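An instance follows:
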Amino acid sequence: MASDSLFSDRPRKIIITLTPSFFFNHPLTVLGNKISVLRFQRSLCDPHSTSNGFLRELDTAAVGAFPVAYSLFFVKDLAVSIYKSEGILGFFKCLPEYIAYHLTKDLLRYLVPNFFLPILPKVLGPLPSKIKLYNILDTHNHIRFRYEGFLEKNSQTTTTKFFDFYINQVESELNKIVTSLIVELITYPALTIISRMIIYDGYGPVSFHVLFKHTLSVDGILSLYRGFSYHLLSNIIKYIIKHFNRFVQRTLISDFYLSPMFEQSFPVVLSITQSVLNQFSLIRRCGSKIDGFCIEESSINIFRQMPWVSIFTQMVVTIGLLHIRDKLVTTQIHEFNSQFNE
């Protein structure tokens, strides 16, 4: 296969993913980040640390760190305090940096597959064909056969069916997945600095450039990638959720029985898991020796402080409500059909 045809699925233009909802949701991002790391904020954990006293004035004793839903009662007081100390602009903290971060990711999603991935065979030599990178951007010829194979396996269990579907899906979108991995690897340090700026409660203003240099000198360059593994796991779960409806549709086409309980509960479990992983990543990347940020906690210590009972309760209640709703809808449909037949 000619090298030029290997990369025929490259994006033709830069796609900007920023929408008006991004601007309206930013205050929620600010509030959510502050609450999520509250239990590990250095100004509340270390009496000798310096801060602007903003958080110490609040009643934070009963605030849980995970997930945000359990700290909603604290949001009002926090929002009022932000407004009093910083005004309305306090809810749009780091908005320019966040916009630049997302625009950079949009730009890289165009540059990486168009300019970086095509040179991989030249740089790596014969390695791509050994690890099947030769097919990284030219999978359309095989998609139909993969899905035909998926539809033919009607005797599989739900678990096997599920994994077969996502293996096929990953193979058909390998170019996008590799591109996303490279983009996240390049931009994660910027996300680390932005996250720290949002939760910062130290003295004086801090800029992206100054904080970046200070972080390198105090915490080291590797600190910019703290929590990156949890960030990737969160993106993997996000990918699974994104294509779950397609998986359900494929099972219907193939007349494969999919348990309604699995169909309802699995997305809920994934969504809550993704939320927890996002909080893990946020706390890890906000950990620093510098005052105004979070204390440096290991993953084990963060895990131990998770309110697993509350999280499990939320999961069970949500799944139960969905199941009850489905039962009620099914009952109403049966009653309507019986009346219609009469």
